[in-house]
Amino acid sequence: MTAALIEAEGLVTRFRTPPRRLFERAGSVAAIDGIELRIEAGESVAIVGESGSGKSTLLRALLGLGHLDAGTVRFDGRPVVADPRDRMLWLRRRTGLVFQDPYASFNPRRTIRQTVAEPLEAIGETADAEARVDAILDRLGLPADAAQRLPREFSGGQRQRIAIARALVHGPELLVGDEPVSALDVLVRRRILELLAELRRDLGLTMLTVTHDLAIVPTIAERVVVMRRGRIVESGPVARILEDPREPYTRELVASRPTLPPGTWIGR
Ligand SMILES: Nc1ncnc2c1ncn2[C@@H]1O[C@H](COP(=O)(O)OP(=O)(O)OP(=O)(O)O)[C@@H](O)[C@H]1O
């Protein structure tokens, strides 16, 4: 079998929990507990589960940003190790990240040009930064003068476009989103989801998106991984999971999701 883009085996991450009573010892909780996950190049996978199920911890582990108590992660066959001596520039070159609240991750005093160029600085590819920033801002439908302006001058939807521009400016093959549209209102959310689907097609991206919102999954992914209490309880094609969930927990999640907009399913 050829190497998958991401291969995770037996991942366990524990966090210490403070004692609840005076003479009780501190305990620990497994935020992720024995995760096996394989993502092929070009695939788009959504990780879903309620708050606290371990989605963000898993994402951090896959990117080498969080500690692991057990297990291994490989990216295109190469081990991902959370080691401060190795800043894993090779992995940063190949991945782009989009978070829920772009504003919180923008420096309010840096122009959009400086903000979007951040990954290029981080990986030491600044030679043609200006042209690359202009090209990606244009690709994301931002006005030509956006580069000189500051984050506060933009709406929520535009800020998320800027965040996506920053995630893609260095030409990564994997785009990772942690609740990338949760902070947006419904119409803007729809547009950003469609934009992500289009970018994925045009750029041949592999996508990994964490969300608590099952309603967005058909637009963003072909495969769903359902997490509960640090474990994967079910995984499969979007249509199968949404129409015929096998696990009681997934059935509950599906039943409680808001009605799907008459949207674009990419998974079938
Ligand atoms: N740094 C930390 N220290 C202690 N406990 C943590 C830490 N990070 C996560 N946890 C615990 O690990 C479990 C999983 O958290 P995680 O944030 O991965 O879940 P999540 O599914 O991403 O939740 P949300 O959707 O609310 O972000 C939770 O019980 C959480 O309290």
Automatic annotation (TrEMBL):
PROSITE patterns cross-referenced by the UniProt entry: ABC_TRANSPORTER_1, ABC_TRANSPORTER_2
Alphabetical list of InterPro entries matching this protein: AAA+_ATPase, ABC_transp_ATP-bind, ABC_transporter-like_ATP-bd, ABC_transporter-like_CS, P-loop_NTPase
In what residue span(s) does the ABC transporter domain sit? 6-254
Among its keywords, does the record have Transcription regulation? Answer: no
SMART domains linked to this entry: AAA (SM00382)
Has UniProt tagged this entry with the keyword Nucleotide-binding? yes
Q: Which UniProt keywords apply?
A: ATP-binding, Nucleotide-binding, Transport
The family database entries (PANTHER family) matched by this protein are listed as:
D,D-DIPEPTIDE TRANSPORT ATP-BINDING PROTEIN DDPF-RELATED (PTHR43776:SF7), TRANSPORT ATP-BINDING PROTEIN (PTHR43776)
Q: Which family does it belong to?
A: Belongs to the ABC transporter superfamily.
Q: What name is this protein filed under?
A: ABC transporter domain-containing protein
The organism of origin for this protein: Leucobacter iarius
